[in-house]
Amino acid sequence: MSTYEVSSIATVVGGHTSVLDDHQGGVRSIIRLHEEYPLETLQGIEEFSHLTVTWRFHLARPEDVQLHARSPRGDARWPATGTFVHRNHRRPNQLAISCPRLLGVDGRDLLVTDLDAVEGSPVIDLAPYFEQMGPRGPVRQPAWPGEMLDPSYWSDARDRPAGGEAP
Q1: 145 membership: H or E segment, kind and range
Q2: Helix/strand/coil (H/E/C) assignment for every residue in 42-68
Q3: Prior bond to 151 cis, omega within 30?
Q4: pTM
């Protein structure tokens, strides 16, 4: 097995303050580029509506990794699926990819919304989202991701039930 050392290029500032399964929408946060990267590394990014952001589940622990099939969210309504069929922190490298909307750029700060990372998450990489780099051809998936995520995952955080994180 090969190992690779990577360093974060930015940090998530603001936005979600705790890990929750749903109500990720409408929350603004900042992706703050680290100072060792010149500002010109962001030149032209404001022309794009969305970003592709690779970030680390920094609140996860190595012992959270689960290398076995299990039902999503522990819900028996959905089939047991393998580790690489889930999109959560139980993956070996505890990495995530999100496509937030880019609202603006202010120096090293990229103001985004709909980023499902929490405050302090290290950003490993970012790039503008190119439509041409998205899926080719029809997209196929089983019913359970839609049942699990629609409409609750991206519903507005202001609609979160009492006791949930405040936006």
Answers
A1: helix 144-149
A2: HCCHHHCCEEEEEEECCCCCHHHCCCC
A3: yes
A4: 0.88
CA distance 90 to 6: 19
Type of residue at 9: I
Q: Check if the beta carbon of residue 74 is closer than 8 Å to that of residue 90.
A: no
What single-letter amino acid sits at 69? A
What's the pLDDT tens digit per position in 128-166? 999 999 999 999 999 999 888 877 776 777 877 765 554
* Contact call for residues 34 and 143 (beta carbons, < 8 A): no
First-to-last alpha carbon distance for the chain, in angstroms, is: 41
Considering only CA atoms, which of 131, 139, 121 is closest in space to residue 11? 121
Residue 65's Cβ-side half-sphere holds a number of Cα atoms within 13 Å equal to 10
Rg (the chain; Cα; Å): 17
Beta strand 122-128 pairing with 51-56: antiparallel
On whether the CB atoms of residues 45 and 33 are closer than 8 A, the answer is no
